Amino acid sequence: MINGINLQYFPISISDQMGEICTLASKPIRIISLVPSQTELLFDLGLVEEVVGITKFCTDPANKVKNVRKVGGTKKFNLDVIAELKPDLIIGNKEENYEEGINQLKQHYPVWMSDIVTLDDALKMIQQIGILVGKKSKANEMVESIRQSTSDLENAVNNKTASTNDFKTVAYLIWKKPYMVAGSDTFIDEMIKLCGLHNIFSDQDRYPETSLESLQDIKPDVIMLSTEPFPFKQTHVEELQAQLPYSHVILVDAMYFSWYGSKLLGTGDYLRSLKNTLKIS
Question: What integer is the mean pLDDT of 222-236?
C-alpha cells in the first residue's frame, strides 16, 4: 500500500464503455480529463495532484480547477499542450468529445472513453474510473450513496402504470435560436423519467429542434429551461411563460440533469425538491 492505494491493480487492462481496451502499466499520475463532469469526479475521488489537464469548460470544483492547465475545448483539443503534459491516462466521453481528436490521442496515450445514457451507465463509469485510478473503494462508496439517494425516485416511477397518462409531460429546452430540446437516448431523458415526468419529445432522436409554435400546439404540462449549454435565465422563463400560458415554465440546474459523475450525489435531493415544486407524486 502507498498513500492508501492498493498497487495490486496494476498493470491492468480494462474495457471502456465503447468496447475498447485501455491498458495501464502502473497507477496513472498524470491524468487529463476532457469532460467537465468526469473532471469533478476525479477531484472528488481525491486526485488533486494527478489531474494535470482539463478543458476550458471544466468548472467544478472551482477552487481546484482554476490552476489546472487547459487543453482546449471538448470539441477541439490543443494537441501541443497535451503533448507537453505527457499524460499517462486521458479520460473522455463519446458524446462530449469529437471522434477525430480522440483517435489522434489514442495513437499516443492510453484513452478511456465513457458512453452514458442511463443512470446505470453512469454508476458503472464511476466504478471503472475508480479502478483505473486506484480509487476502487472510494468509487464504490460513491456509487452506493447515489443508489441509496435515488432509490425512492426509481421506486416511485416503477409504481406508476406504463401509461404516459399517469405522468405530467415536459419539454426540456437546451438551446435557443433555434429552440432545441432533449429527446430520447440521452442522459437528460433518463433524469426526466427519474423526476416522474414524461418527456414529450422522447419519440424523437437525441436533440431535435422545435419552435414556439410547436410548443404552443403540444402544450406540455412543464417546460424546463436548462442553464446549459444555452444559459437560460429567469428573464427567459418570464418571456416564455407569457407565450405559453398552458405550461408551467421553470428554470432548472443543468448539472443535475446532464452531469453524470459525482454530481449525482446531489441529484436525488434536487429532483425531490423539483418534484415537490411541480407537485409530482
Answer: 96
Give me the number of domains the chain comprises: 2
Retrieve residue 82's grid coordinates: 497535451
Q: 136-159 vs 119-132: helix axis angle to the nearest 10?
A: 170
- Domain end (from 142, 175, 195): 142
**C-alpha span between 23 and 38 (Å, rounded):** 19
Q: Is the pLDDT of residue 210 over 80?
A: yes
Query: In this structure, are residues 58 and 33 in contact, taking their beta carbons and an 8 Å threshold?
Result: yes
3-class secondary structure for 88-140?
Answer: CEEEEECCCCCHHHHHHHHCCCCEEEECCCCHHHHHHHHHHHHHHCCCHHHHH
**What SS3 class is residue 173?**
strand
Asked if residues 240 and 223 have their Cβ atoms less than 8 Å apart, the reply is yes
Query: Could you give the CA distance from residue 57 to residue 68 in angstroms, rounded to a whole number?
Result: 12
Q: Are residues 128 and 221 in the same domain?
A: no
Question: pTM surpassing 0.85?
Answer: yes
